[in-house]
């Protein structure tokens, strides 16, 4: 009986990759059988069910949805080299959806950055009302953790580029200028 239950669990796990047909019937010895193949012709009563994914494709997990709603992430970065590249990699590795702002090429983004941190230095991470100036993986991960974002990569990895102006930032004492910043080139 345990082998049958284990077989059913394995069958259900395997079918979670795609929708599958599962057949259930009672054999001539009175044992319940499950299979992805139709039952033998001598079976009088069988059930056929379609089993699909239990996760809706393209949707974020509930904790991620809550974090996005409460503390949206904005990345102010441009083509500043390694620092901006590493900043994007960190967010992508964690599967964090974010609004990408390029103060080097967009005046409105530059104005927002100046209002937020007072200087044209990138990268800057904004999580909700908090911001972190300069790229420091430990500080960035802490800010994302405090914002309620999961630590692992999740399926949803969409990046918004057209967002409304971010909310006013609250100065974060931990966001003092660090060594990992690059001045944004002046246009």
Give an account of the 3D structure.
With 187 residues, the protein is an alpha+beta fold. It is built from 5 helices and 9 strands; from the N terminus they run αβββαβαβαβββαβ. The chain starts with a helix and ends with a strand.
In terms of DSSP E residues, the strand content is 15-25%
Low-confidence stretches: 154-180
| Major sheet details | 4 strands, mixed
State the secondary-structure class. Answer: alpha+beta
CA gyration radius, whole angstroms: 25 Å
Topology:
Layout: H1 2-15, E1 20-26, E2 32-35, E3 46-51, H2 62-70, E4 73-76, H3 82-94, E5 99-101, H4 107-117, E6 121-122, E7 124-127, E8 130-133, H5 137-146, E9 182-183
Observed structural traits:
187 residues, alpha+beta, four-stranded mixed sheet, three-stranded antiparallel sheet
Brief description of this entry?
This protein has 187 residues and is α+β, with helices and mostly antiparallel strands.
């Amino acid at each position: 009986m345990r082998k049958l239950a284990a077989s059913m669990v394995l069958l259900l796990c395997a079918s979670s990759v795609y929708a599958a047909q599962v057949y259930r019937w009672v054999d001539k010895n009175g044992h319940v059988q499950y299979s992805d193949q139709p039952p033998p012709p001598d079976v009088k009563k069988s059930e056929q069910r379609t089993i699909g994914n239990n996760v809706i494709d393209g949707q974020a997990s509930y904790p991620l949805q809550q974090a996005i709603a409460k503390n949206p992430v904005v990345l102010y970065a441009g083509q500043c080299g390694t620092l901006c590249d590493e900043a994007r990699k960190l967010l992508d590795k964690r599967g964090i959806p974010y609004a990408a702002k390029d103060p080097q090429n967009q005046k409105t983004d530059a104005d927002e950055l100046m209002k937020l941190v007072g200087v044209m230095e990138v990268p800057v991470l904004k999580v909700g009302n908090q911001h972190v100036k300069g790229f420091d993986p430990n500080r960035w991960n802490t800010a994302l953790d405090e914002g309620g974002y999961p630590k692992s990569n999740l399926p949803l990895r969409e990046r918004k580029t057209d967002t409304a102006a971010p909310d006013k930032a609250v100065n974060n004492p931990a966001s003092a200028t660090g060594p990992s910043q690059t001045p944004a080139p002046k246009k």
